[in-house]
Design brief:
alpha+beta, 17 helices, six-stranded antiparallel beta barrel, Topoisomerase I, domain 3, Rossmann fold, 5 domains, Topoisomerase I, domain 2, globular, single chain
């Protein structure tokens, strides 16, 4: 059989990197091309949704004409076409759009030669297995994606013009993004309302045979000195602790009466088995990368995408903790050979999904090759994320860590002191993850034994309000409420930052003046749409569409019936919200009458006169950073890159060009 007689097969994926990786696994009779993302979508210049019957107008992206032409040309000489976009709703929709383009070309291909294939890892075995088990496009998943797309388009294109009239020109709103902004605004209100309270803790340093350890006062006259209070938050509860010692003199008075000898009244030791966490889901990966490396969700997903496309990890958009039987057996074999059989958990360990709406039958994120704990050809960021994923996944089949928690109670006058310590008996899975314990080591002690006290002191503390959201805690809150999906967390955060509704300050989100004003208007007029239960309910409806339990058009008709009333009422009955500019306390140097204020513009903050447009004085905003320039001695300022990342520079720029990522 000549090359000309060989069957020609076309496989279409989304990413050029993925196309190159898969191309290495398939023979010469395969051609692998990429759509480079979406190639057909709603137009950007109009809503493109008929609000009576919810028919949708799609257009081919003008920037993708060359890509479309290449796909159509390649399809004409193919005997089989496999649509292999990502294995989720978004990927299913992309395959559906490609299918439509090929069937509606000038010379359409036969419907019978097109099929859908999905794989959760880019390995030769997985790709070949997927091709053997090709199927038709799952229209339930397509309709679920279409329902989300139309719902977000209708909300965004309806609210945005209203915000132009009632808040400020140029604003835009999104369904889930607005809920995320509301969470951040509500948290800011909760922080402002929190009443700080000082309190004191009392400690003693004890010693036996030269070994020193600490004990903390926990009871006086048999009553706990600490009290825990709870506050109800917009998205949960917050607990904080205070002690009965409210002033330094209260603490000093007690310390004066602490006796030298401490009598051991009780020693309790409990053997604890600590289990490894399940392999990463998308949200947990973003949260871990945020906590350990300070990464944004967007950065984490960008690096994970590269790892997936290189065939190093399984699909990185998932809310499942499931691991395949094959991978579990490979992990167990690797642990036994590398660390010893005693480090393998005797019985296979399974994990249950805790996500409210785990939507697809994905695996958790794991390495595709367990024998590769590190990668040699990736950059520093790829190596860091891969190592986290590898350790977390492999550790799921390792034995539990066994430790002995020891608590010792001491009597001293009318007080009870407590010491806590941990003794590691077997490190188990910690051998793989490398996690450390920093609990104090206690000497050998016995009940009714007297221990000598060396010194006593107090520590002043203050009750802190609930922390502002970080990338990790915001994603965690959205996930807990059942809002958003693995593919949406990073775009939600990127969007609200880009629209200047919130800003990142030392890794935490705080609302801008614009964000607060916009949120105030939306909550006042669309409280239902921006409520947590309603948004979660809409996610559940989208899941029902994917399961063929409801039609997406019916969902939209029900939603629009109520939303249209609220829109009309807000347009006719709501007042314009004034965006209060932050005052600097300086007089305008140009007119001498107005006061300088900080405003938000298209490119960020700037200084202008509050008499605008009568006075048009402006200058760049420079945020003081609290240090002197190491080169010229001028004031240091916070600046931003084009992508919004903060760095430090000199206020005399461009005369002085000193800059750095870290404050000197």
């Amino acid at each position: 059989m000549t090359m000309k007689d060989k069957m020609k097969k076309l496989l279409i994926v989304e990413s050029p990197t993925k196309a190159r990786t898969i191309g290495k696994y398939l023979g010469n009779d395969f051609k692998v091309l990429a759509t480079v993302g979406h190639i057909r979508d709603l137009p950007t210049n109009k809503m493109a949704v008929d609000l009576k019957n919810f028919t949708v107008e799609y257009v081919i992206d003008a920037k993708k004409k060359k890509v479309v032409d290449e796909l159509v040309k390649a399809s004409k000489s193919a005997d089989q076409i496999f649509l292999a976009s990502d294995p989720d709703r978004e990927g299913e929709a992309i395959s559906w759009h490609v299918n439509w383009i090929l069937l509606n070309a000038k010379k359409p291909v036969k419907k019978e030669i097109i099929s859908r294939v999905t794989f959760h890892e880019i390995t030769k075995e997985a790709v070949e297995e997927a091709i053997k088990n090709s199927r038709e496009i799952d229209m339930n998943l397509v309709q679920a994606q279409q329902g989300r797309r139309v719902l977000d388009r209708v909300v965004g294109y309806s609210l945005s013009p209203l915000l132009w009239k009632k808040v400020r020109r140029g604003l835009s709103a999104g369904r889930v993004q607005s809920v995320a902004v509301r969470l951040i605004c509500e948290r800011e209100k909760e922080i402002e309302a929190f009443k700080r309270e000082k309190y004191f803790s009392i400690y003693s340093e004890l010693q036996k045979n030269g070994e020193k350890f600490n004990a903390e006062l926990i009871k006086v006259d048999g009553k706990n000195i600490y009290k825990t209070d709870k506050i109800k938050l917009f998205d949960g509860e917050y607990s904080y602790t205070t002690s009965c010692f409210k002033t330094q003199s209260d603490a000093d008075r007690y310390i004066k009466n602490v006796e030298k000898d401490f009598l051991i009244t009780k020693i309790s030791g409990k053997e604890v088995h600590r289990l490894p966490l399940p392999a990463f889901t998308t949200s947990k990966l973003q949260q871990a990368a945020s906590r350990k490396m300070g990464w944004s969700g967007k950065q984490t997903m960008s690096v994970a995408q590269k790892l997936y496309e290189k065939g190093l990890i399984t699909y990185h958009r998932t809310d499942s903790v499931y691991l395949s039987e094959k991978s579990i057996l490979e992990f167990r074999k690797y642990i036994g050979e590398k660390f010893g059989e005693n480090y393998v958990v005797p019985k296979i360990r399974f994990y249950k999904n805790t996500s409210k709406n785990a939507q697809e039958a994905h695996e958790a994120i794991r390495p595709t090759n367990v024998s590769r704990p590190v990668i040699d050809d990736g950059d520093v960021r790829e190596n860091k994320l891969y190592e986290m994923i590898w350790k977390r996944a492999v550790a799921t089949q390792a034995a539990a860590a066994v430790m002995k928690n020891t608590t010792i109670l001491f009597a001293n006058g009318n007080g009870t002191f407590e010491s806590k310590g941990v003794i590691m008996l077997f490190d188990g899975f910690l051998k793989i993850t490398g996690d450390k314990h920093e609990d104090q080591v206690l000497p050998e002690l016995n009940e009714n034994e007297k221990i000598n006290g060396k010194k006593n002191w107090s520590v002043e503390s203050e009750t802190n309000p609930m922390p502002r959201y970080s990338d990790a805690s915001l994603v965690s809150s959205l996930e807990k409420q059942g809002i958003g999906r693995p593919s949406t967390y990073a775009p939600i955060i990127s969007t609200i930052l880009l629209r200047q509704y919130v800003e990142r300050e030392e890794g935490r989100f705080r609302p801008t003046v614009l964000g607060q004003a916009t949120n105030e208007f939306l909550v006042k007029n669309f409280a239902n749409v921006l409520s947590l239960p309603f948004t979660a309910e809409m996610e559940e409806d989208l899941d029902k569409i994917a399961l063929n339990k409801i039609e997406w058009e019916e969902m939209m008709k029900t939603f629009w019936k109520q939303f249209e009333k609220e829109l009309k009422l807000a347009e006719s009955g709501s007042e314009r919200v004034k965006v209060e500019a932050e005052k600097t306390g300086e007089k305008c140097p140009q007119c001498g009458e107005g006061e300088l204020v900080i405003r938000l513009g298209r490119f960020g903050k700037f200084i202008s006169c509050d008499r605008f447009p009568d006075c048009k004085y402006t200058r760049p905003f420079q945020e003081a950073a609290g240090f002197k320039c190491p080169e010229c001695g001028a004031e240091g300022v916070v600046r931003k890159t084009k992508t919004g990342r903060k760095f430090f520079g000199c206020s005399k720029y461009p005369v002085c060009k000193w800059a750095g990522w870290k404050k000197p």
